[in-house]
Amino acid sequence: MANSLISYGKIPERFKALLPNEGQFITRKLYYRLRDNVGHNCQMKGCYDRYHCYYYHPELTEPDGPWNKIPANCQPGWEGCPLFINKAEIPEI
Asked: How many whole angstroms separate alpha carbon 63 and alpha carbon 87?
């Protein structure tokens, strides 16, 4: 958690090379959705959004491979799942 780091003041120039800026900003809405669903594993094997969803883990849900085919015109989020979080919208850590 880096919420209170600004309270410590500025980093001296001589230490900046040792402390690279690796922070990423996310929206408050995304933060709360990620925080509130820690450890969730989506079990919706037939969902078209699954390959784009943060909560989909194919090694747990479909260890033998997918049983249906995602249409070529599929747009992430088109199924309207309330838990859907697009992996592409989460910054790399």
From this structure: 20
Give the tens place of pLDDT for each residue, 39-50. Answer: 788 888 778 888
Task: Give the whole-angstrom CA distance, residue 6 versus residue 9.
Answer: 6
Residues of the chain with pLDDT under 70: 1-7, 92-93
Q: Count of CB atoms within 10 A of residue 33's CB?
A: 16
Which structural domain range is residue 31 located in? Answer: 1-93
Residue with tokens 């883990």: 57
Write the burial class of residue 76 (CB in 10 Å: 0-12 exposed, 13-18 middle, 19+ buried): middle
Report the candidate in 78, 83, 69, 2 with the shortest Cα–Cα distance to residue 39. 83
Tokens of 42: 């989506």
> How many structural domains are present in the chain?
1
Residues 6+ apart with CB under 8 A from 75: none
* pLDDT for position 34: 79
